[in-house]
Design goal:
Elements lengths: L2 H12 L3 H10 L6 H7 L13 H16 L15 H11 L4 H10 L6 H7 L13 H23 L1
């Protein structure tokens, strides 16, 4: 999944407007203008389309963690590797303070069944013998589960 697609899904799940996205980027000390944000959401091939760099998406996800959970005491972790689905999955999990049971329920609502052991393999270090790469379909199912959960919460509030 491309970095632009990840940002697009997160925007859709949480109903974020450009102003809120800019504020999240600012929390991670990675300011983005309204025009830059608009260019991230353009279709690939459009003249003003801009690809999101790995460090920019990582900064946004760090900002999302700060937005949801507050600033962490001590030194902030720096991403020294290309971002991948496992890192995106882990950062969103941290931002939302999701436990394994929560994620399994989200995936189940999106029609993907994983055991706790299969899930924990996504969050291991790549050098670990039980590490497993998160494919696009799994990340998409996770995003779909989050969207379903947020949509149900909105419906319950309106009722």
């Amino acid at each position: 999944m491309t970095n632009n697609e990840v940002l697009h899904h997160i925007r859709y799940i949480f109903s974020l407007n450009n102003e809120k996205i800019a504020a999240i980027f600012q929390l991670a000390a990675c300011p983005q203008s309204d025009e830059e944000i608009n260019n991230f959401f353009r279709k690939n091939g459009e003249q003003a389309f801009a690809r999101i760099a790995d460090n920019t998406l990582a900064s946004f996800l760090d900002g999302l963690i700060i937005e949801c959970r507050g600033v962490k005491e001590g030194a902030q972790a720096q991403l020294d590797q290309p971002i991948n689905n496992n890192i995106v999955f882990n950062k969103v999990k941290i931002a939302l303070a999701l436990k394994a049971e929560d994620i399994i329920a989200l995936l189940d609502s999106a029609e993907l069944t994983l055991s706790k052991h299969e899930l924990s393999a996504f969050f291991r270090k790549p050098e670990h013998k039980h590490f497993r790469g998160c494919n696009d379909d799994t990340l998409l199912k996770f995003f779909n589960g989050l969207h379903l959960k947020n949509h149900q919460a909105i419906v319950e509030i309106k009722e």
